[in-house]
Specification:
With 302 residues, the chain is an alpha/beta fold. 28% of the residues lie in helices and 17% in strands. The protein has 9 helices and 11 strands. Strands 1, 2, 3, 4, 6, 8, 10 and 11 form an 8-stranded mixed β-sheet that branches. Helix 4 links the parallel strand 2 and strand 3. The longest helix is centred in the first third of the chain and has 17 residues. The N and C termini lie far apart (47 Å).
Length: 302
């Protein structure tokens, strides 16, 4: 067999492994559309305005178009927005780990400001930029973002990859009583859930629960492992995650090159249950800074 044929054969095998129907978790528990509203956690505040209508947002769920530029109200400096016509009952921090993806970031910000404003949220977007020369550490950047957001009194954290965009308007960016895997139906997996214990991409978790599990591990340099470790931390702390119906959970993934795999990811995951109290949010270094940009709060960390 020629070298070219070998590569073609390997490509076919990889494609089958990814898209073979029985590989995916086709059947899993989820919160049905009619029950989503009553599962949401609200922050009550005294206001002369009527409360924002989140039930309407959920039940009027529609598909969102990706291709065109979006219009939105300019947020306050630092990427903060509150609706002016109603009293927001959901206060949420959207935290994005980031490095060297300028075009994706521009697309993300344009799309997400439009998307979030239509949901009547009090939100702030945090971009956490890893500024050292080490392999990318997604989990550690999320920890930095969570620390700053918690210090700013945000009760709900959305941990969000920059290359994922929600396709359903009713996919409310808020927390429920359990940690929530939001991106359970992604186009690159033909809108299937790859496996039941997946807890990455886009997730919602209360600040209280994030602190309880001590955030994520700081030791995953390179691609892979941190999501599975995240799931283990939830299990150790009796926090079983939930999902919304696939009708609300569809995302598209923007094209990107894969990061180099973390060489010691399996060793770290094996020690997760034992070491999670001494590795995470509580052991972050203090070498980070905060800048208020026009469309987001920038955290520079390493």
């Amino acid at each position: 067999m020629s070298a070219r044929n070998i590569w073609v054969f390997c490509g076919i095998i990889v494609t089958i492994a990814i898209y073979w129907p029985t590989r995916h978790a086709r059947h899993y528990d989820y919160i049905d559309l009619k029950d989503v509203y009553k599962e949401l956690q609200f922050t009550q505040k005294i206001s002369h305005l009527r409360n924002c209508n989140y039930k309407e947002v959920i039940l009027n769920n529609t598909d969102v178009e990706i291709g065109e530029a979006k219009s939105y109200f300019t947020p306050e400096h630092g990427g903060v927005y509150k609706p002016k016509h109603c009293n927001p009952l959901i206060k949420v921090a959207v935290i994005v780990p980031y490095r060297n993806r300028t075009l994706q970031l521009e697309t993300f910000l344009n799309y997400m400001h439009n998307f979030l404003q239509k949901q009547y949220l009090f939100y702030r977007i945090f971009i956490v930029d890893q500024v050292d020369n080490l392999a990318f550490n997604r989990a550690k950047m999320l920890n930095f973002g969570a620390k700053v957001a918690i210090d700013m009194d945000f009760p709900c954290l959305i941990l969000h990859d920059v290359d994922l965009l929600p396709l359903n308007s009713g996919n409310i960016y808020g927390c429920v009583s359990k940690p929530r895997h939001m991106s359970s139906s992604v186009d690159t997996f033909r809108f299937n859930l790859p496996y039941l214990t997946l807890f990455g991409g886009v997730v919602a978790i209360s600040s209280q629960h994030f602190q309880k599990i001590n955030g994520l591990s700081n030791h995953f340099y390179g691609w892979g492992g941190e999501d599975d470790d995240f799931y283990k931390r939830l299990n150790v702390n009796d926090l079983s995650p939930c999902r919304f119906t696939p009708v609300l959970s569809r995302y598209t993934m923007l094209f990107h090159k894969k990061e180099k795999a973390s060489p010691n990811r399996y060793d770290i995951m094996e020690k997760s249950a034992v070491l999670h109290k001494s590795d995470g949010l509580s052991t972050l270094p203090s070498n980070y800074s905060i800048k208020m940009e026009k469309l987001y709060t920038l955290i520079l960390a390493s």
